[in-house]
Write a structure and sequence with these properties.
alpha+beta, Aminopeptidase, 7-stranded mixed beta sheet, 7 strands, ribonucleoprotein, EC 2.3.1.266
Length: 152
């Protein structure tokens, strides 16, 4: 029997329904992204990748790109695979794209999401500010974090 492996590859339009399913499970107290939101992100040329366990989508990450900066729009990993390094791999993949383009990276993260904050700090992000009641409808606060451009 072949062992199951995780592969990182470009996110596809046919993954949008699965992404929305993961969103509903992970973010029920806020406004989870819809299938149409993922289609829109892909249509606008943003950089999105998926983590596939065999052929099943188990996580995704998206990076919006401009000429001057980039912004992490989302990173999510289904509950059964959290803590296994999939999120770290997704983050490193989108950061590599920002580094390739020489762009700084910005993001918002819930102030109570300690694992994500730790991951971002370990990858060169710094706290820049606080956005009160950023996530709706829960009203949860968010830290704004940033990472300078890698111009090596």
């Amino acid at each position: 029997m072949t062992p199951r492996t995780v592969t990182i590859a470009p996110l596809r339009h046919e993954d949008a329904a699965r992404c929305a399913e993961i969103e509903r499970d992970l973010f029920p107290g806020d406004d989870p992204w819809s299938e149409n939101a993922f289609h829109s992100e892909l249509d606008h040329g943003n950089f999105y990748v998926g983590a596939y366990w065999d052929d099943r989508l188990i996580g995704y990450a998206g990076l919006a790109l401009t000429d001057f900066e980039s912004s992490v729009h989302t990173i999510a990993v289904e509950r059964a695979h959290q803590g296994s390094g999939v999120g770290k791999t997704l983050l490193r993949t989108i950061l590599a794209k920002a580094d390739e383009l020489g762009l700084p990276v910005f993001l918002e993260v819930r102030t109570d999401n300690v694992p994500a904050i730790s991951l971002y700090l370990a990858h060169g992000f710094e706290h820049l500010g606080l956005r009160r009641r950023y996530y709706q409808p829960s009203g949860a606060d968010a830290y704004t974090m940033g990472r300078p451009a890698n111009r090596d």
